[in-house]
Amino acid sequence: MAVAILVAGFLIYLNFNKLISTALNKSFESSLISEVYELKFENLSLNPIQGSISVYNVSFVPRENSDYPYINSYIRLHTESLILENVDVRLLLESHRLVLDKISIKKPEVELDVNSSNPTLFPFRPSNASAEAGKKQSLESYFLKEFELTNASFHVINSVKKRDFTIEDFSISLLDLFIEHKEGNDLITLKNIDISLKKFSGNLTEGPLKQAKFREFKLMFDSVSVQKNLDTLIFKFSDLQAGIDSLDIHTKDSMYHLQMDVFNLAYLDQSILIKGLSFKPNITNAEVQKNYKFQHANFSGTVGSLAMLGVDFDSLIRNDKVFVEEVILDSLSAAIYKDNSKPKDLNHFPEYLGQTIAKIENPLRIKSVKVVHINLTNEEKKPDGTTAKVHISNGTAEVKNITNLAPNEELTLHATAYLAGKVETILDLKFSYLKPQFSFEGRLSPFDLTHLNPIIKAYTPAEIKNGTADEIIFTGLASSSEASGTMKFLYHDLEIDLKLKEQAKWKSSVVTFGANTALISKNPISEDAPERTVRFAADRDMNKGFVNLIIKSALNGMKETMIMSKENRKEFNQLKKETRKEAKREAKKEKDKN
Fold first, then answer.
1. CA dihedral in degrees (247, 251, 256, 260; nearest 10)?
2. How far is CA 531 from CA 368, 537, 579, 584, in A?
3. 176, 504, 518, 584: which is deepest, by most CB within 10 A?
């Protein structure tokens, strides 16, 4: 009797599984999706205690012919098992309606074929033939408590943008999915969605990139609502978190390589964090320069970390407005290379920072940008074929009020750095947004003048043999074509080897010294002599930016101090006369007192 009962129970179980299998097929065939896709599986098993159905060797593929011309993209899925949990078995058997709480798919293989810039994968209304036959009904609403797909392998082909992606260990989890379709309006809501993947790699035929790959991608949305009609998409959520590790991108021409170790975005915290960012060429600077007819500066560099705080994501998403409270960069190392043996592009006129920012189309306001631990290297190939290098190390910079919304305000920049690793330099700039001009103020702390030799010898045949700078302060105002200001350059024991006896007419683009001119060795020249504070002027090279104009202004001020022009000499002689008169008056007062 026990054996008979077991055999009978087993036969009933098999027959019941067949009934469930038939009901599941009929449930799918009665859905609108079956007009476009075909569902196949080998067998299934029912767990009556848990109310779950396990379906094995499942495939979900597009039908060869379907009467839905607006379906322009397709999905294919194959998995060894699919689990349906808390299924209303009675409703499934009686009405062929599949009502359940959770769908779980493990290790599926998925292919996605995208053939439109606005891909449509599933039908929401029946075809004309199906509607007339009354076979299919439009999908009006659907609710699923939980959907879980884990460790999937994805292959995505985008024929529109000519891209091919491979994704490994892809997982997605949905909670409380609700879909409602009405004529001309679709609504999708989710309590939570989590997406993650272990590895992504892709080839891009069109566009600026050639290859891209990354690891450990994570994306989380909380309380999602998507409303779509014919011409509008409204997307809402209460929280968003995203992260990417080990991003690796090659540009289409294979010239540049972009890498990023960590990227994290937190919507509620209003923050973005990037670590280990680098942008470097795959080829030498000389090879890069072959792609340019005129002088061109190519850049490369690394950033230890970049943090954006107080990011207004709502304004960015809804209105394309960039509002950020603070940006902090740590450990910035950059290299600039330029081939000055090539001709200038006389049609290239760099704008000052104020005008560059004012022309940005999207509304922009970044209150503060702070950069610490800056190291810069500027390398130039000179017309004679030799190279010159200048190093700036251990720098800090702070830029405030970066905006195109307040034309009457100013952009300010405060920077501190060390020239040649030893000369502390402080620079303050204020850029106008209304017109192409900026004011500048520079200060150099006391230093041994021989520390400037690496810079001077890189551009001129001159060399400082001895000397100490006691104080250097210069201020000025730059317009669109020139700059002018004053400089106070105090020094003593200056000795310069000009090496120009046979080059009396020699000139440098950075510093100009007269070969037969006697330089004063100190300023002031004596204890009772006045200090030389001179006026300087510099014409802007219209094909270069503001940094070149500041350098020319500072060097012209130093040259004016050592070799004064007629105007400065006249003012200085007048100051000497007044100083002598004042000294005589003081001496007379002292004599009368005694």
1. -10
2. 38, 20, 10, 18
3. 176
